[in-house]
Design a protein that fits this description.
The chain folds into 6 domains: 8-113, LON domain-like (Archaeosine Trna-guanine Transglycosylase, Chain: A, domain 4, Roll); 117-238, Up-down Bundle (Methane Monooxygenase Hydroxylase, Chain G, domain 1); 242-293, no CATH class; 306-483, Rossmann fold, CATH 3.40.50; 489-576, Helicase, Ruva Protein, domain 3 (Orthogonal Bundle); 585-786, Ribosomal Protein S5, domain 2, CATH 3.30.230. With 794 residues, it is α/β, with parallel strands linked by helices. Helix 3 runs antiparallel to helix 4 (156-166). The strands form 7 sheets. The protein has a 5-stranded mixed barrel with strand order 1-3-4-5-6. The protein starts with 7 loop residues before the first strand and ends in a 15-residue tail after the last helix. Helix 23 links the parallel strand 18 (621-624) and strand 19. Keywords: ATP-binding, Cytoplasm, Hydrolase, Nucleotide-binding, Protease, Serine protease, Stress response.
Length: 794
């Protein structure tokens, strides 16, 4: 290239960085025009190097370059397998870029000299010596590169370039040094940059010392994060990080109460000061996320059209008039008052009567979101009220989580199976519900995780339970209890036709016209294949029938007619198997000493047989059947009353002198207790000793005193419905339970005869046949041996 004019050179544009005169640098080359330049030059050639104004420009023109560049001698050229290259160059004097002589395959420009100004002036020499001494003073803290630069006896302009090339300058500052041709001005500029670099070095040392004190030997990544934070603090830049910004926006939209807002502001301030790698950072962020997700002020729009609500409830459930009436009353109060106060409704009854589904139906009818909390088996208080944040992995309780899911503060919340709560070593979960289910307190319900009052007063609570006796009195006192004691056969028939059969057909992929069951067959299924208070078992039997029909439909050929499958009474044995329940009352009471009682159980009412037997002995009383203490005491009281009134009821006064009495309640594997069997035990003993049989169409319940008074008992509706299901037509009840008959459906009351007794004499007159059977009384035959002990307890 020596034959070319000396002011024309190939041009290598730099995307980033600036080269000052007097340096040796290695430059990576990758752009096509730059690679073409590398191919055209050899080691020892002179090129011009200039910096681009914008690094993004791919094919720069002379207008895209700074007007001053540097001449550089190529020392070495290296090429890579990927096509890129590397140039080792030594920069010389500054030149002005004049014009582009060639653009392709590489750029070539003409230049003019750009000499230093006032380089030999006294001012320049004094400034150079001052700068040299200043750099030597700072050499102990800034390292050895600058010491090497000032150790050489360089001219003032070259000294400024050498020091500037060793300073950690920004690109803007490097360009400023390159463009300054006046040497004294360049020395002053470099001196200012040296002072700034020294100040930054001092600040960095101070920050490093603070970080070391705080973190000790933590890993480098954590140190770098702390250094960034310390730099922000030193510069006064303490803006919240991205996480805090997002949380702040989310919390601002939540419209928090004043008390909650104070806690949130404190936690947000703490969060911004925490290192994201610190364990407390995630704890604080999760806590604030939980607060932001809660519906502090969001409400669902509640339907106030009572007719529409009533129609929805009737469409979803047949019967249950008491519950529907209570819901409509609640909605009427809300409509008239214009308020949003919640209510606490407890649906108590046996399984399968629709308690849980009724809660969902209430939510749909009122237009509120529905959330269900299953409490069966919960034994830890923290599951209800949450864990305190002092514990690792602490979370809110089920109540607060349900509110997060509902997203409104007035949902329908179903607390399912509340009587199945158990108590563990960590506290009673039932006690944790006392505040929640108290209308006077739940506006400030406090979860242990939040430790903030949350208003639950607008929630409509629906509590379900099978056995209210298993709940503590304080909890029962807080509930508006509506008892669902079961369905009558007629109600079951309507439920099966309107709800169960369509549902089972849909579950088994059958069309609505695929199956036809006549009413007589349905009644037969209700009485002979199921004997329950609810309709769950009836649903299972209908599902079994639907699956059998589905098999028939699936086996049909394509040309066979698609007529519906019709089910009559005589077809039930084929589809459902043998009949499961029989009317065994007449069979069991065919001999003296057996009486039919009525019992209440958590799964509904049931009939209970009391069997007695006498045998030669010396007056011993044996009681079997896994009976509780109260029931055993009822048996002793009944025997004492029989002995004290033996003459008036037709029994030998000294019957215990030569006989032993055995009282047995079948289904011995089932625990039984309560005072309501006293009347039945007394009647069975009198029947045994007098030889008068108990009427087979009669069942009874009531507590018996030693004086023969008949005291009232509970569960009358459930017991009467059980008697009706078992085919009983006469029921003996305590006189003071007469008011409870109003709860019994009219269709059941019309089919039963009720005898209201105040003392045992009235019970015996109504329950026993008038003609005795002396042969049984005298011989003392064992009644138990004559009974079919294998028959199931009804």
């Amino acid at each position: 290239m020596t034959d070319k004019p000396t002011n024309e050179y190939p041009l290598l544009p730099l995307r980033r960085g600036v080269l000052l005169p007097g340096t040796v640098s290695t430059l990576p080359v990758g752009r096509p025009r730059s690679l073409a330049l590398v191919a055209a030059v050899n080691a020892g050639d002179i090129i011009v190097i200039a910096s681009q104004r914008e690094p993004e420009t791919e094919k720069p023109t002379i207008a895209d370059l700074h007007p001053v560049g540097v001449l550089a001698r190529v020392h070495r050229i290296g090429r890579s397998n990927d096509g890129s290259a590397r140039l080792v160059v030594e920069t010389r004097e500054r030149v002005n870029l004049e014009q582009v002589l060639q653009s392709d395959p590489h750029m070539r420009v003409s230049t003019s000299p750009a000499p230093d100004k006032s380089a030999d002036s006294t001012e320049a020499k004094i400034l150079a010596e001052s700068l040299r001494e200043h750099v030597r003073e700072l050499a102990g803290t800034d390292g050895g590169n600058l010491v090497e630069a000032v150790a050489k006896r360089l001219e003032p302009g070259a000294l400024a370039d050498a020091i500037g090339s060793h300073l950690p300058l920004e690109r803007r500052a490097e360009v400023e040094v390159l463009m300054t041709l006046d040497v004294p001005e360049r020395l002053r500029l470099v001196a200012r940059f040296v002072n700034e670099a020294h100040e930054m070095h001092s600040i960095r040392q101070k920050i490093d010392e603070e970080v070391r004190k705080r973190l000790g030997k933590h890993q480098r990544e954590a140190i770098l994060r702390e250094r960034v934070k310390a730099i922000q603090t030193e510069l006064g830049d303490d803006d919240e990080n991205g996480e805090a910004d997002k949380l702040t926006e989310k919390l601002a939209a939540a419209e928090l109460p004043e008390e909650v807002q104070k806690v949130v502001d404190r936690e947000l301030k703490r969060l911004t000061k925490l290192n994201p790698a610190h364990p407390e950072f995630n704890v604080a962020r999760t806590y604030l996320d939980t607060i932001a997700d809660l519906p502090w002020s969001t409400r669902a729009e509640v339907k106030d059209d009572l007719d529409e609500v009533s129609a929805q409830l009737d469409a979803d459930h047949f019967g249950l008039d008491d519950v529907k009436q209570r819901i409509l009353e609640h909605m009427a109060v809300l409509k008239l008052s214009g308020g949003s106060k919640g209510t606490i409704l407890c649906l108590a009854g046996p399984p399968g009567v629709g308690k849980t589904s009724l809660g969902r139906s209430i939510a749909e009818a009122t237009g509120r979101p529905f959330v269900r909390i299953a409490l069966g088996g919960v034994r830890d208080e923290a599951e209800v009220r949450g864990h305190r944040r002092t514990y690792v992995g602490a979370i809110p309780g089920r109540i607060i989580n349900a509110m997060r899911k509902a997203k409104v503060k007035n949902p329908v919340m179903l607390l399912d199976e509340v009587d199945k709560l158990s108590q563990g070593w960590s506290g009673s979960p039932e006690a944790a519900l006392l505040e929640l289910l108290d209308p006077e307190q739940n506006h400030t319900f406090t979860d242990h995780y939040l430790e903030l009052p949350f208003d639950m007063s607008e929630v409509m609570f629906v509590v379900t339970a099978n056995d209210l006796s298993k709940m503590s009195p304080p909890l029962r006192d807080r509930l508006d209890i509506v008892e669902i004691n079961g369905y009558t056969p007629e109600e079951k028939l309507n439920i099966a036709k309107g709800h169960l059969i369509p549902r089972k057909l849909e579950e088994n992929a059958l069309g609505p016209d695929t199956l036809e069951i006549d009413d007589l067959a349905l009644r037969h299924m209700i009485t002979d294949y199921t004997r329950e208070a609810g309709v769950r078992q009836l649903g299972r039997e209908l599902g079994k029938l639907s699956r059998a029909v589905a098999l028939q439909v699936a086996r049909r050929k394509g040309d066979e007619p698609t007529e519906p499958v019709r089910i009559a009474v005589e077809d039930l044995d084929e589809y459902l198997g043998k009949q499961r329940f029989y009317n065994e009352v007449a069979e069991r009471t065919a001999v003296p000493g057996v009486a039919t009682g009525l019992a209440w159980t958590p799964v509904g009412g049931d009939i209970l047989f009391i069997e007695t037997s006498q045998m030669p002995g010396k007056g011993a009383l044996k009681i079997t059947g896994q009976l509780g203490d109260v029931m055993k005491e009822s048996a002793h009281a009944a025997l004492s009353y029989v002995r004290s009134n033996a003459a008036s009821i037709g029994v030998e006064p000294d019957f215990l002198d030569t006989r032993d009495i055995h009282i047995h309640v079948p289904a011995g594997a089932v625990p039984k207790d309560g005072p309501s069997a006293g009347v039945t035990i007394f009647t069975a003993l009198t029947s045994l000793l007098s030889g008068r049989r108990v009427r087979s169409d009669t069942a009874m319940t009531g507590e018996c005193t030693l004086r023969g008074r008949v005291l009232p008992v509970g569960g009358i509706k459930a017991k009467v419905l059980a008697a009706h299901r078992a085919g009983i037509t006469r029921v003996i009840l305590p006189h003071r339970n007469a008011r409870d008959l109003d709860d019994v459906p009219e269709e059941v009351r019309s089919q039963l005869e009720f005898v209201l007794a105040e003392d045992m004499g009235e019970v015996l007159d109504a329950a026993l046949e008038h003609e005795p059977r002396p042969s049984q009384s005298q011989l003392g035959l064992s009644i138990i041996d004559e009974l079919d002990s294998s028959a199931p307890l009804s």
